[in-house]
Write a structure and sequence with these properties.
heterodimer, A: 118 residues, alpha+beta, two-stranded parallel sheet, 5 helices, 60% helix, B: 873 residues, 6-stranded mixed beta barrel, 6-stranded mixed β-barrel, 21 strands, elongated
Chain lengths: 118, 873
């Protein structure tokens, strides 16, 4: 049940949500609910996306033209708005991923030395 | 790149789809429908917040707020149209009047002159404003390479344009060759004067204005090299100027000056202009001119009086300098009117905000910040201001047209006024600025005042007895007091001008102006340059005119009474002139046909009047001249020289004084004028040509019972028949007398108009305040009535309140007027700027107006039913 697992899940920083959305959508058009599910599942339930925060994020990304949206029908015949990655979005994804990797590597080096010791 | 805003409904649909998906998924896990939906909702978080965030993120919220504020303001104003209309009318009057005056000031004072490099163009004239002589100008022309495009011109010569259609009197200017280059006038066809044409004795050529070309010659290019008859002699048209050339002074035809360097003409008739070369200052130019003048006077001794100097001033200054003080005064006055209008607006807004305490408290209670409330209230006042301002701008354009209809014909640069003056960006910008300042300044104070309500008390108390009401009342009384003070100032100014006008026109003119028809004709030009010809015209005309039914007597003269501008030197042989002067004096001089004194009913004092035939040159003088120059003797029989030293064209020997006639005032502000009257026949040709440069006058006295205008057609025909003379300025003598104070009339009319508007607005303000006050005091008045106050006593109570408020305002106004009316002192005639009658009458009138304005609310108060009043919460 979502409510009981809430407290265990990690809250996402706003900037990283954008990155995760872009990464999720790379595999093909997906609607908002699907994106949220995908993030939760792929992170093995570690990451929790507040649905209320998801849609504004999608709106932002759409305004920046990194994703494109279209209304369509979902797998269970319900109307939904599907998001797909644009070329610019792809570029942005690459950029952000690189940045993230550099960041985590750098932090990891600092923490990692401690971990080794610890 | 345009981002098409995604609709809120679209976003809402997406969220709804999400919720449905989520609840379906939960239902598939076995949860009931209701539970599933609720859980889906919870998982989403705050739906409303998400919608709001989306909305705020994708809209310019300030625009949103603005639109909703404006809509709300409009609704509120439409619900209570009365006060809104009052405010709009007040602002319309205030902003409209200000825009109209500003439009005039903009064209006359602010715009640079319509010539290229107009800030470098200077005017060179005698101190005192009059022109220079021909010899002096030609001396400058030959000896000063210093200025660029030195040019002389003689404006305002009315000349007859005849040949073809009916003859027409047109405005002619004699100019030297450089005039066109100096003022940047280029011909649209043909050319301007060549060197040969500007030489003495050169050919008679003319350049036409574009508008004359269109009006009279249908804009046909065949006008070039055609002969027209100008001033009675043929003249060749060599060019037409472009339509954009609108000089001050105006003209329709330009002819060459043909100034003779060898002339000894001492008449000061030439206006001189030039352009400063680059890098030369006005001061440098002045000193160069001073040196030049000194050298000139050495070789030509009499070109400049002993105490006279030549001044170099900027042309813009010279053209507009006269009118500047009056226009600025009017601007100040109309600004005061706007202040009163604004005070009324502020009062209204304060009154309304008092009544809205409850509404504002509610807004604040559900979360509106102070700034938000202020913004909303300010939007209301700005909306009102803009509505009033827009109306005002429209009214202003009509106002300008009215102003132009009223202006004395000699207000400079009026011809440059565009047909839609309020479309000028400066003028409309000014109006917008006024509107915004009005709306903000007078909306801000009430808005700020009421945006911090004491929530609890406001929500609890009855709307008409809010605590803030008392403070507002004091503020409003103060505003009305200020209005009254301003109205007093304007009224005092207007009354002073009225008294001055009455004094001027009550003076004894010295002749009888009733039943007199006047017209003006031009005898300028080569066709009339011989006295014999002028005399013939005068005689034939009088002969014919006196046979017209309804005419008692007729006369022709070189100038209208009150409009004489020709001075002439004279000398009494054997009489020692004053220190520094060559001759005895310089007095007004005109020629008149023999019946002149009968027509005007000027009495004969001694000697005789001019006869039809004289056996030598004779002159009749006015009493003032006799008293001044022959204090102890009867001048009849004495001889004088007229025009001594001016050459044979003027002075051909002694002239006998044959009579003295009654005094006549030529200027209403001054005492009786010394005048010399001669008959046309004996005047030397040179003098005749000189005096005919200005329009001559026809005077007709009609028999009692016949209106002067009734004979004007017949008179015009007579003039055409005799000499093909067109006429202008057909007026009665009374009209002429009125026109002689044209500038003062203009100021008077406007200031009176402003004072009236101010009084009206102040009355409205008083009515508003008293009305509201009575409403607020309903409860109290009800108690009084219940305790035994009669209606009469209640009436007095309210009137007394109004009276107190008024008295303070009047006192302030009178005090201010003592200082401010000093500004008018220069225009007043026989009236002190602290005139007692004015300063008593105006306060009385104002108190009366105030009491009248307060009458209705007072009456309402006295008629209150005590039961209703006490029940009224």
């Amino acid at each position: 049940m979502p409510t009981q697992d809430d407290k265990d899940r990690l809250e996402l920083l706003q900037g990283t949500l954008d990155l995760l959305i872009l990464r999720t959508v790379i595999f093909g058009p997906q609607h908002g609910q699907g994106i949220a599910r995908a993030i939760q599942q792929t992170s093995e339930e570690e990451l929790f996306v507040e649905h209320g925060a998801l849609y504004p994020a999608l709106q932002r990304l759409e305004e920046r033209r990194w994703i494109a949206a279209k209304w369509g029908t979902s797998s269970n015949n319900r109307k939904a708005r599907f998001y797909s990655l644009t070329a610019a979005g792809r570029k942005q994804l690459v950029k952000e991923t690189t940045k993230w990797k550099r960041l985590t590597t750098a932090i990891g080096r600092i923490l990692g030395s401690e971990a080794k010791e610890g | 790149m345009f981002w098409r805003r995604r609709k809120s409904s679209d976003f809402g649909a997406e969220i709804e789809a999400h919720i449905q998906h989520e609840s379906q998924r939960l239902r598939e896990q076995g949860i009931s429908e209701a539970e599933a939906r609720a859980a889906a909702r919870r998982a989403f978080g705050n739906l409303t917040r998400a919608q709001e965030n989306f909305y705020e993120g994708s809209h310019w919220m300030w625009w949103d707020h603005l639109v909703s504020d404006v809509r709300y303001a409009a609704r509120v104003l439409l619900k209570a149209p009365g006060p809104a209309l009052t405010v709009m009318v007040a602002l319309m009057l205030g902003i409209g009047a200000n825009s109209a005056i500003f439009a005039v000031i903009n064209t006359v004072l602010l715009h640079p002159l319509p010539y290229p490099h107009s800030d470098r163009i200077v005017n060179i004239a005698r101190s005192g404003g009059s022109g220079v002589t021909v010899p002096m100008f030609t001396y400058w022309e030959q000896n000063s390479g210093f200025f660029e495009d030195l040019a002389a011109y003689q404006p305002g010569i009315g000349m007859n344009l005849s040949g073809g259609d009916k003859p027409q009197l047109i405005n002619t200017m004699k100019t030297s060759r450089n005039y066109f280059r100096l003022f940047g006038a280029s011909p649209v066809i043909g050319r301007t004067f060549s060197v040969e044409e500007d030489q003495p004795g050169g050919p008679r050529v003319a350049v036409l204005s574009y508008s004359l070309w269109q009006r009279r010659f249908a804009g046909s290019p065949s006008i070039l090299d055609k002969w027209i008859t100008l001033g009675g002699a043929p003249c060749l048209v060599i060019g037409v100027l472009s339509p954009g050339f609108k000089p001050t002074p105006v003209a329709d035809v330009w002819v060459p000056l043909q100034a003779d360097p060898n002339s000894s003409d001492e008449a000061h008739v030439l206006a001189v202009g030039a352009r400063l070369p680059p890098n030369v200052t006005l001061a440098q130019a002045s000193s160069s001119v001073a040196v030049l003048v000194k050298r000139c006077v050495e070789t030509h001794p009499h070109q400049l009086g002993k105490d006279e100097r030549i001044q170099v001033t900027l042309m813009q200054q010279q053209v507009t300098g006269d009118v500047r003080p009056a226009l600025l005064l009017l601007m100040g006055a109309v600004g005061l009117v706007l202040l009163i209008a604004c005070a009324n607006v502020a009062n209204l807004l304060l009154a309304r905000s008092t009544g809205r305490q409850k509404e504002i408290a509610i807004r604040a209670a559900i979360g509106a910040g102070r700034g938000r409330i202020v913004r909303q209230l300010l939007t209301e006042s700005l909306l009102l201001a803009f509505a009033g301002g827009a109306l005002g701008l429209m009214m202003g354009s009509w106002g300008v047209r009215m102003l132009l209809a009223l202006t004395p014909g000699d207000l400079p640069r009026i011809q440059e006024m565009s047909p839609f003056p309020t479309l000028d960006p400066w003028v409309s910008g000014f109006a917008v600025l006024l509107t915004v300042v009005t709306g903000v300044v007078f909306g801000l104070f009430p808005a700020v005042q009421s945006s911090q309500p004491e929530l609890v008390s406001s929500l609890k108390e009855s709307s008409s007895r809010g605590g803030a009401g008392l403070q507002h009342n004091r503020m409003r009384s103060a505003l009305v007091t200020a209005e009254i003070a301003i109205a007093v100032v304007l009224s005092c100014g207007a009354t002073l001008l009225i008294r001055s006008f009455a004094a001027m026109h009550a003076t004894n003119l010295g002749f009888d102006p009733q039943n007199l028809l006047t017209l003006q004709v031009s005898l300028a030009g080569p066709g009339y340059s011989r006295s014999a010809e002028v005399d013939r015209i005068a005689r034939e005309f009088v002969e014919r005119a006196e046979h017209i039914p309804g005419v008692e007597s007729a006369a022709m003269a070189s100038a209208l009474p009150l409009w004489g501008r020709q001075d002439m030197l004279f000398d009494i042989p054997g009489h020692t002139p004053l220190e520094g002067f060559r001759f005895t004096g310089d007095v007004q001089w005109r020629f008149v046909s023999p019946h002149y004194f009968d027509v005007l009913r000027i009495p004969l004092i001694s000697g005789r009047l001019l006869r039809e035939q004289e056996s030598g040159r004779t002159v009749v003088i006015s009493q003032a001249m006799a008293r001044k120059f022959w204090p102890n003797r009867d001048p009849v029989g004495q001889t004088i020289l007229i025009g001594p030293g001016l050459g044979a064209g003027f002075d051909q020997g002694p002239v006998e004084v044959v009579g003295v006639v009654g005094d006549v005032r030529e200027r209403l502000e001054f005492g009786p004028t010394p005048i010399m009257y001669e008959s046309p026949y004996e005047i030397p040709d040179g003098a005749m040509a000189l005096v005919n440069r200005t329009l001559d006058a026809i005077l007709i006295r009609t028999i009692p019972g016949v209106a002067p205008v009734a004979v004007s057609e017949a008179v015009k025909q007579a003039l055409i028949a005799i000499a093909n003379l067109p006429v202008t300025n057909v007026r009665t003598m009374e009209q002429v007398s009125l026109d002689s104070t044209a500038r003062q009339n203009f100021n008077l009319l406007l200031l009176s108009l402003f004072a009236t508007i101010a009084l009206l607005l102040a009355a409205v303000g008083i009515y508003g305040v008293m009305s509201y006050s009575v409403e607020q005091r309903t409860h109290e008045l009800g108690v009084r009535a219940a305790l035994g106050a009669t209606p009469g006593e209640t009436l007095w109570l309210v009137l007394a309140q109004a009276f107190r408020m008024t008295v303070v305002g009047v006192a302030l106004g009178v005090a201010a007027s003592f200082g401010l009316t000093r500004l008018l002192a220069g225009q007043l005639f026989r009236v002190k700027s602290s005139d007692a009658l004015t300063f008593t009458a105006v306060p009385v009138v104002l108190v009366a107006v105030a009491l009248a304005a307060a009458w209705i609310p007072a009456l309402r108060a006295s008629r209150l039913d005590p039961m209703m009043a006490l029940r009224n919460e």
